[in-house]
Amino acid sequence: MISFIGSCIQNLISCCKYLFGKQVKIKEIINQAATFSFDSLPISLAIVMIAAAVIALQVSKQFLMTGAEDYVGGSIAIVLIRELAPGFAALAISARAGTAICAEIANMKVTEQVDAIKTMNVDPVGYYFTPKIISAAITTPMVVLLAEVCGIVAGMIIANNAIGLHFNRYMNTVWLWLNTKDIYISLLKASIFGILITTVTATQGYKTTGGAVDVGNAVTQGAIKATVFILVTDFIINLIFYL
Question: How many domains does the chain have?
């Protein structure tokens, strides 16, 4: 694991050198953004909305019993924006796009396409990784922001149907409890998660040797490692900003 983390850091440094030393094509970044985030948008929104609906259903009646139903909206918004939306969206993107990146790089490695790039005096890590990392860092916060809005709306609808909480009373505590710091940290988390997912899964694919069976094993390992690293990084970010 320590060796793998070292490889991820080395590859990230190589991408930074490639970014400032070469001209990365904007078209390639846009194509990667569509593959990475746009294709993952439906599943990300669905997971976050369902999570918000479940939380609203669970807490609404409990808050009503204590006369604190006005705080349902604020509670759901805080939980969503600080934790659930960035975490769940990142896990969904990792499962959808991260595995695809790992499979793509691993297939290139075992079919010797990477060696062909090396013969043209091009850094394969910078050439393959850099557009993916840039697109992930830019578009993952967009997915998370949409997921947060959809999650708050889903919680509002469920709270209204469960305990008859008026939309105005729900949104009032959302605006009162939220501040810009929570939103900024949420978007920062999303950007870090996007870079992390791309770097980990691409590195796992790049380390693949053998044949088709090894590509499948690499995809499995990439998905597991990306999930673990997302959760650990999430904990560290929370320690830094909220302890």
Answer: 1
Q: How far apart are CA 2 and CA 235, in angstroms?
A: 19
**Taking a C-beta distance cutoff of 8 angstroms, is the pair 107, 211 a contact?**
no
Helix extents (H) in 38-112: 41-65, 72-79, 85-93, 99-110
pLDDT digits (tens, 9 = 90+) for 103-129: 999 988 888 888 788 888 878 888 888
- Helix ranges (H only) for 94-211 are 99-110, 113-119, 124-163, 167-177, 180-206
Write out the residue range of the structural domain in which residue 214 sits: 2-242
Q: What is the CA radius of gyration of the chain?
A: 20
Q: 103: helix, coil or strand?
A: helix
* pTM > 0.85: yes or no: yes
